[in-house]
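User: Hi! I'm a student and our assignment asks us to look at how structure tokens line up with a sequence. Could you show me two examples?

Assistant: Happy to help. In each example below, the sequence comes first and the structure tokens follow. Example one:
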Amino acid sequence: MNVIDLTDDHLQLYFMCLEDWSEEIKEAGTRKELWYKGMVDKGLRVKLALDNGGQVGGDDPVRTH
């Protein structure tokens, strides 16, 4: 796992709460984008976790059994 700063490559995914598969979340993305743009000027920093394959948050859940 690798923790990175939020980059332009991942902004849209972040605005959709990392749930780009959800139509409902896609509708809410604009509000989060507006909030982000106001807060980043106040010092907001966002970190993302990448799995070993470079996917944000990972696609394959960790199996515990």
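Example two works the same way, sequence first and then tokens:
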Amino acid sequence: MADYIQDLADELARDTLYGQIELEDEQFWEQVARVLGAASPTLQDAFLTSIRIRLAERRGRAFLDKALAAKRKGAKPPEAPREAEKGGH
């Protein structure tokens, strides 16, 4: 059952993050999380985990893209956040 819940949550997280673009609301995932929490805290937890992972991956990928672009241009690469600033888990 745990795999099923995680699969549902991850699919909804992916669709929600894409939907935010059309809705022009970068925090829409918070509303979806509240709806889930009212119906299933278990699904809400899995959804929030998927959202955090997907957002973190986006940030990591953006950092990688900037570092590679700087290297190709001979420019100074971006600095990663210091440990105290990174947030998350």
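Here is something you could point out in your write-up. The chain has a mean pLDDT of 93.
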